[in-house]
Amino acid sequence: MRLAAIIILLPILLVIFPARNSISIESLPPVILWAWERPENLTFLDPQKTGVAFLAKTITLRGGKTVVKPRLQLLQLAPGTKLIAVVRIETDRASLSSAQLEQTAHEISSLSGVSVVQIDFDAGVSERDFYRKLLQRVREELSPSAGLSITALASWCAGDNWIADLPVDEAVPMLFRMGVERPQFQRRLESGQPFEASICRNSAGVSTDEPVTISPVNRLYIFNPQPWTRDSFSRAMEAFRR
Known about the structure:
CATH topology: TIM Barrel
Radius of gyration: 17 Å
CATH superfamily: Glycosidases
Structural class: alpha/beta
Shape: globular
């Protein structure tokens, strides 16, 4: 197997692939597969049509501590695949101190080998001020040419709409695992009603195990609870009409 087709992510986030290409949110392919913390072989993808958003690290804010868990699983890609590094943030009775904010921002902005970073944080109401400041800090530390994306609860994009002025290039509404709100948003999606937050209208996040009706978007992010295969990818493309 060609070395250029393999990414190995170790505790220091060692990335082995061809020289970094400068890309932006707008230049991403129309389909992005989420690759979570497990071995994934995605060498069957066409880099011109499909990109990969891989979990690069998980940051847990526990009490006053900041615990960082890097990706440890092998990720295999075709040369030229456009990448988004995803950072998952979780909290456990966190103090949300300024020290935690600074360390978290540094962990995110120091990711190497990618030109787009995505933050996945289901911030509660009491955590929103911290999240806003964190995004502002990350935006300051990232290269001006780097794209900054976030995942967003569907409610954030609808009546809640607290994310409208966040310093990000993209918010991806998560149209799965919506719990009791699922029927409400399913009716909304079927009617074609757009989200109030314009930043949520260009992309959508779906899962292979929760079919949902979506309006046309520029980018569709797809999660699969199981490792991706050529067959599961083909089924997803058919199910979501891509």
